Amino acid sequence: MSGLYMMTVITNRNMKDRFKNFFEENGQAVFFGTPGRGTASSDVLDYFGLEATEKTVYFAVVTDNMWKKLKRELIVRVQIDVPGTGIAFTVPLSSIGGKKALQYLIQDQEYVKEEESELKGTKYELLVAIANQGSIDAVMDAARSANAGGGTVIHAKGTGTEGARKFLGVSVAEEKEMIFIVARTEEKNKIMKAIMEKTGLGSKEKAVVFSLPVTDTVGLRILEEA
Questions:
Q1: Residue range 96-225 in CATH 3.40.50.880
Q2: Of 81, 74, 65, which is closest to residue 5 (Cα–Cα)?
Q3: What is the per-residue pLDDT across 54-76, written as a single tens digit (0 to 9) for each?
Q4: What is the pTM of this model?
Q5: Edge to edge, what strands does the sheet with 152-159 contain?
Q6: Which tens digits make up the pLDDT trace of 71-130?
Q7: In three state form, how does the secondary structure of 32-62 look?
């Protein structure tokens, strides 16, 4: 799948309302924010004019056209390229778990499916599941039933239009769990399927899941030897 990306934006926490309003005003209906903290050394911070402040990290799924629009507006309106304001980057998606999940994540963004991403032949993929708060055990149990290993969880606050609740029965503006699982590429589909079937939009967990290609890894010896 090409033309879809996970956009990540990192900014100082005192600017979170400014960025939240920016996304909504520019048509980015669904995004998820979580607290973070900068860890750069004092020399690096001084060089870039940054401060060791609390951060807010935003995640959103965007199309090619949406990213081009947001990138331009981030520079012109938010002046993100001014030192100390923040950074934004995108990672191509390789798959999304179902049409409803796609609709939930991109809302009104125009999207026409193209050929699969050119990042082919990767040995591993990063699965990202977004579910209602308190769903960690259920989602991980579903993933492990399809031979997934462990996962890493961050807590996020969703923001978005009421269209998600109206059409999918899913509220965006609630506390969410974001669960990150690294899996073998050949096992990705069955893990995603297990999460969708056992904890998907028809369940109380309301999980959606998508994957991103992983170009290289280290520290996955157990998976490699299994």
A1: no
A2: 65
A3: 888 999 999 999 999 999 999 99
A4: 0.83
A5: 86-92, 4-12, 54-63, 31-37, 152-159, 175-184, 124-132, 208-214, 95-96
A6: 999 999 888 888 778 889 999 998 899 888 888 888 878 877 765 444 556 789 999 999
A7: EEEEEECCCCHHHHHHHCCCCCEEEEEEEEE
Domain-by-domain residue ranges, the chain?
Answer: 4-92, 96-225
pLDDT at 149 over 60: yes
Closest by CA to 11, choosing from 106, 91, 70, 79, is 79
Query: Residue 226: which pLDDT band, with cuts at 50, 70 and 90?
Result: low
**Domain 4-92 belongs in CATH node 3.30.70.120:** yes
Same fold, 4-92 and 96-225: yes
CB 56 within 8 A of CB 12: yes
pLDDT at 218 over 80: no
| 152 close to 180: Cβ distance less than 8 angstroms | yes
Q: Identify the CA nearest to 181 among candidates 122, 127, 219, 221.
A: 127
* Cα–Cα distance, 21 to 25 (Å, whole number): 6
Q: What letter would DSSP give residue 15? A: G
